[in-house]
Amino acid sequence: MIKFFRKIRQSLLTQNKMSKYLLYAFGEIILVVIGILLALNINNRNQQKINEDKITNILKEIQQDLVSDVERSKEIFDRFIRADSIQDLILNDKYTYNDYKSKKARRLPFWYVDFVINTNGYDNLMRNIDNVPEKYEPLLKDLKNLYVDKKADIDVYNEKIRETVYKNIDHVWTSYDWNRDWIMGKHTDDAYNYYLNASEYKNMVMLYMNDRSNTFSISQSYSFSAIEAYHKINELTKSVVDSIPKVLALEPEDTSFLNNIVGHYKLKDSMDLNWPKDLKTIQITKEGNRLNLITENGDSELVFHKESTFLIDRALYVQFNKPKKGEFFVSGNMHGQRTYIKEE
């Protein structure tokens, strides 16, 4: 091909056809430019494909982090429920000498569970922010909400509960001689009397559970946003998945028990004497496989956690058939547990 064009140039020069030669030379330049542009276009498209594949893989890494974070939030949920039940017993003077004597009993305000999220995927995305394709840009706001805004609150609540726990430990350690014996495994009557009778200890429990309630609340708020972000990544990357991880499910696999929960309930008892009148009666309804809690003030969706436990408004939780069938209690904040009984 090169020899062919060379012969044309030589022929035109030999025949002294300068004008045609210049026209031909100009055309040849145009062809070269077009070739270069085509090559650049192909190279750009290849680079865009490489960048898109890289960002897609990073988003999949973020999805793995989100699943891990949701699993951690559910662990926080389960542990909070156990701690909340112990708080209820302590504040109602139902936590006994034998409870404290049991090896299973733990001194509530002296240990903590914080909520630490995985940021490796997001950090990797930020290092490649200039390569994010335009179609993925709607994700950036959602991810910033998770990894910047919510993380800031998470860090504050984690630090607060750590400070509270260490303050409690330091106070008891330096104020009571029996604590040294307790640490050494010698559980004296002085220690049991403190845990059973000291108002100071009950106040300590309440303040600690307030901090723990904040950690619980932010972990659940993060969890809901994380689930939404996971599905949004699937949509934008057009991922074909065989199944969504079970931990992300907002509905129970077996929904047969939901119909038994539907009905009207009335307040049976409450730790909070000022519990609002509009919450004296509650109705539970069902739409599809979702439950709603309806009061005079409005309604809230009950988000499935596991078994017969649901979450309300990311701060309170409901357990059905507890303490017995046909009843449920609401808890999750400083007001303690409120028990409702089903009206026949």
Describe, in short, the structure shown:
Helix content is 57%, strand content 14%.
Overall description:
The protein contains nine helices and eight strands. With 344 residues, it is an alpha+beta fold. The protein has an eight-stranded antiparallel β-barrel. The mean pLDDT is 84.
Question: Which helices and strands, and how do they pair?
Answer:
Blueprint: H1 2-14, H2 18-91, H3 97-101, H4 120-127, H5 137-175, H6 178-183, H7 189-197, H8 199-237, H9 258-261, E1 263-270, E2 281-287, E3 290-295, E4 298-306, E5 309-312, E6 316-320, E7 327-331, E8 338-342
Antiparallel strand pairs: 1-2, 1-8, 2-3, 3-4, 4-5, 5-6, 6-7, 7-8
Helix pairs in contact: 2-4, 2-8, 5-8
User: Can you give the mean pLDDT?
Assistant: 84
Distance between the termini: 94 Å
- The number of distinct β-strands equals 8
Report the principal-axis shape.
Answer: flat
Share of residues in helices: 55-70%
Q: Which strand order does the major sheet show? A: 1-2-3-4-5-6-7-8
In what range is the share of β-strand residues? 5-15%
SSE string: HHHHHHHHHEEEEEEEE
**SSE class:** alpha+beta
Provide the descriptors you would attach to this structure in a database record.
single chain; 344 residues; alpha+beta; 9 helices; 14% strand; flat
